[in-house]
Design a protein that fits this description.
By secondary structure, the protein is of the alpha+beta class. About 20% of the residues lie in helices and about 30% in strands. The chain has 3 domains: about 50 residues, no CATH class; about 100 residues, Beta Barrel (Ribosomal Protein L25, Chain P); about 80 residues, Ribosomal protein L25, C-terminal domain (RNA Polymerase Alpha Subunit, Chain A, domain 2). The chain is built from 6 helices and 13 strands. It is elongated and about 65 Å long.
């Protein structure tokens, strides 16, 4: 696993984009395979002798929380932010992020949250699916971070939509897919495994949203595929997309020899 091909400028861009949804990207820029973004950031920091933790964490924190109970996540928000694009730019320069609270039966409420506090709130295993108690100047809202807007160049978070949710009612959430196992038969035939989906939309109560869904490719054969309907989902979790959509497929590699694929018509 290496960070080969990343320049120092690109490293800074990546480290500034330290948000949990990037932790599951298997490829960044089409040049990194096998390393998570977390590993690339840490390795890049060592290569360039940069204290990456000071760029990613609030003062006093030396590690990212893992497995934080969702009921313990509280984020403070200010309801006194001025409106307008110029005011929003000034707000970002102070280390805050403009945001809005919305939801069923809730009048949209403009707020502002501290950027590093937000990263901390969503740095647990649930990532952006973390259930957050948003303290808006004394009034609490149970929310999920939904629409995340980023700067087109730096990639830093520029705006957040917080959706008010009922912890007892199912919501749609995007969950990363993790490939596990070794497709031995496919590999021995010099075929290749082609991951066609990297995330999946699921319907579940906020407390039941999985951190990720595993896709076991051990049983893959030449010409076969794994579809959404084949995935093993936790209890209380349903896939939103069509069950027939392929998650993983196989295709012949450059050195592959002709192989009889199940379903192929015999040739004379």
């Amino acid at each position: 696993m290496t960070a080969k091909g990343i320049s120092k400028d690109e490293y800074f861009t990546l480290s500034d984009r330290w948000v949990p949804d990037l932790l599951h990207e298997p490829v960044w820029g089409g040049r990194i395979s096998g390393d998570s973004v977390a590993q690339i950031v840490e390795k890049g920091a060592k290569a360039f002798r940069i204290d990456w933790l000071s760029r990613a964490l609030p003062p006093g924190r030396r590690h990212f929380s893992r497995g934080v109970l969702m009921s313990q996540i509280t984020l403070h928000a200010s309801t006194k932010r001025p409106q307008g694009s110029s005011n929003a730019r000034r707000l970002r320069h102070t280390g805050a992020i403009p945001a809005v609270i919305y939801g069923e039966g809730v009048t949209p409420l403009p707020v502002a949250v501290n950027a590093k506090d937000f990263r901390t709130a969503v740095s647990g295993e649930q990532g952006l699916n973390s259930l957050i108690t948003l303290d808006a100047d004394g009034k609490n809202y149970t929310v999920l971070a939904r629409e995340i807007q980023r700067h087109p160049v730096r990639g830093t978070v520029s705006h957040i939509d917080f959706q008010v949710v009922d912890p007892n009612r199912p919501v749609v959430a995007e969950v990363p897919l993790h490939i596990i196992g070794d497709a031995v038969e496919v590999r021995h035939a010099d075929w290749e495994v082609d991951q066609q989906m990297f995330n999946i939309d699921v319907l579940a109560r906020p407390d039941d949203i999985p951190n990720f869904v595993e896709v076991d490719i051990s049983g893959l054969t030449v010409g076969s595929s794994i579809r959404i309907g084949d995935l093993v989902l936790p209890k209380g979790v349903e896939a939103v997309a069509d069950a027939a959509v392929a998650v993983v497929a196989t295709h012949a590699g450059r050195a592959a020899k002709p192989v009889a694929v199940a379903g192929d018509a015999p040739t004379e």
